[in-house]
């Protein structure tokens, strides 16, 4: 079983479902509201665990009721939470509006995530024992850089999701093996709207890049290789929250199991396609048998 470490955030997602998202200064009436465990770190950890990996998360929750629920959700999905700290104060929250097309807008309040300002006792040893380290940008940047450098020292593959998108320090890029960005993040990082051209620009910074294109699939680029486009299954999206994290978690599992990149991307796309057909982030993430079944049928319906 492949071993994956995740250094990242935990948030409680406060999700409002509406027909049309409000514009600035506008009030709309929603039709449903849910509190759902999430956060990019927790999302990727759960996605990888449900996809069949042995997963441990490094992060923090608060002393509020959300913290209790977040830890329980991680434990219930088989994620090792021994190195998830409990810090005084509120847990992180994400305030999400989901429209009738499954699109979303998100405001993240860091809460306990902001307390993870450095690696703690046991964190580097956990990273050293993994095959891959998954990183995102909802923790303080210095901590993300510290984790990436630790992975590099021990020969562990680093997979970086540059979200929420922001300038990436050279020392983080130097310790990144695979960058997985959606097309909007790729454009923000490079100033280039075309995903193929943006991926080429990103290859000047890191050796491998995946640009996810939503319903259009994904694009893989690596130095010295021709780019590879992988289509996504055609499905009707209910909620796209967490789909990118589902994709990354499943991709890390597939690569850890030795699959070639095109096959790994297709399997990850099946996982993400399953997730968007259900509401929520963690709650929507598929299990291994579901992904395998979708892959065997060539569809995530």
Automatic annotation (TrEMBL):
GO terms for molecular function: ribokinase activity. Gene3D superfamilies: 3.40.1190.20. Substrate binds at residues 11-13, 39-43, 138, 245. Residues 1-286 form the Carbohydrate kinase PfkB domain. Its main location: cytoplasm. The active site is at residue 245. It catalyses: D-ribose + ATP = D-ribose 5-phosphate + ADP + H(+). Pathway: Carbohydrate metabolism; D-ribose degradation; D-ribose 5-phosphate from beta-D-ribopyranose: step 2/2. It is found in: Cytoplasm. The keyword Transferase applies. Keywords: ATP-binding, Carbohydrate metabolism, Cytoplasm, Kinase, Magnesium, Metal-binding, Nucleotide-binding, Potassium, Transferase. K(+) binds at residues 239, 241, 275, 278, 280. Activated by a monovalent cation that binds near, but not in, the active site. The most likely occupant of the site in vivo is potassium. Ion binding induces a conformational change that may alter substrate affinity. ATP binds at residues 182, 212-217, 244-245. Requires a divalent cation, most likely magnesium in vivo, as an electrophilic catalyst to aid phosphoryl group transfer. It is the chelate of the metal and the nucleotide that is the actual substrate. It is an enzyme of class 2 (transferase). CDD domains: ribokinase. PROSITE patterns: PFKB_KINASES_2. Its cofactor is Mg(2+). NCBIfam families: D_ribokin_bact. Homodimer. Catalyzes the phosphorylation of ribose at O-5 in a reaction requiring ATP and magnesium. The resulting D-ribose-5-phosphate can then be used either for sythesis of nucleotides, histidine, and tryptophan, or as a component of the pentose phosphate pathway. Belongs to the carbohydrate kinase pfkB family. Belongs to the carbohydrate kinase PfkB family. Ribokinase subfamily. This is Ribokinase. It comes from Streptomyces noboritoensis.
